[in-house]
Amino acid sequence: MGIPSEDVVLIQLPKDPSEPTVVTVNCPDKPGLGCDLCRTLLEFGLSITRADFSTDGRWCYIVFWLVPNVPNSCKIDWESLKNRLLSMCPSFLLPFVYFNYQQGGDGNGSSTHSSSVYLLKLCCLDRKGLLHDVTRILSDLEFSIQRVKVMTTPDGRVMDLFFITDGMELLHTQKRRDDTKEHLIAVLGSYCISFELQLAGPEYESLKALPSLPPAVEEELFTYELASKEASSKELKSDLMTLKKASVTVDNWLSPALTLLQIQCVDQKGLFYDILRTSKDFDFQIAHGRFSSSVKGYRNLDLFIREANGKKIVDPKHQNVLCSRLKEEMLHPFRVIIVNRGPDTELLVANPVESSGKGRPRVFYDVTLALKMLGAEIGRHSASDRQWEVYRFLLDDSHEFPLTSNGARNQLVDRVRRILMGW
């Protein structure tokens, strides 16, 4: 039967706006729950300043201390966040599905809306920052962007095709569609020429695959040794020297039943999500954990973990693979490069996809914020036995960033990376 919803997710707003909001989750455990919760917090534009969690494999108790990634950027809809977190808790999976069915199911007792992909067509007059403004509105309205196709015309018009899913699962209702149109037109104003919103058809499947990347570009984008190439840039050298200090230590002596992972690395946006995503992909269980506050730009994490079979991680080979992956996620959660494609210049941004198939939230939002320019594609690419989400931006030459200059290219890559990492 579960427990009362008011006790599953508790949100305590601070009296002082400078203080963090405290969110407590108290529910039955399930594999990957911590990762799913952190992904949703990241999707809502929130940063975890501290976290404590504990589970016995059947029940979990998690406390998050949260602040907006960008202070005063937008108002957080805490009630909507609570409902999203509730939907992930095992005690509320069935009631949540039943609610969706009441809103309009397929007649077979299941919802048809949770995974529905919609096509948003926007035709607008071009202007600086247009793509980011549309992305910001969609993010504020809790839409996830699955695929984007942007086309410009010689007469100064832009056709944006956004393939989106609805975090609120209400886009099948006329009210939700009308609200979406109203919010977009309120920001775009007279620049908006036309607006269409409909269920995506077969064209979505045909657009999902990216054009193949040249082998040299694929190697540069996905090979872990990318760090040594980036270090050649003067603008990035100081940051990378700091990043190289990240460490992961394995201790099997402190606890008779659990392996202790001690992690120290530079603070960055989505750090806790990246670590829990790795734990989910490697299928190891976190029994206890503490994510400490940032001290001089560094984070310390203590994780007591065990394998899925309940045993400690004692195999040295398994330990080395796990530590290497964690370091990779701390050093390079994103890959950012600029390449030439014929006469065109492209910015490529890639991030790993979860084993469940979910991409990282708000990447497109952050990159468009950094660029404030137009021309983009998003798709999936498999490399090195992993699936990656790749964002391709066609760049225009400008006085600020002349693309023939290596210094300007490095500066542009640095700007994008800093926003993605929250620096």
Automatic annotation (TrEMBL):
Keywords: Repeat. It comes from the Eukaryota. This is ACT domain-containing protein ACR. Residues 119-202 form the ACT domain. PANTHER family: ACT DOMAIN-CONTAINING PROTEIN ACR4-RELATED (PTHR31096), ACT DOMAIN-CONTAINING PROTEIN ACR9 (PTHR31096:SF65). Binds amino acids. Pfam families: ACR10_N, ACT, ACT_ACR9_3rd, ACT_ACR9_C.
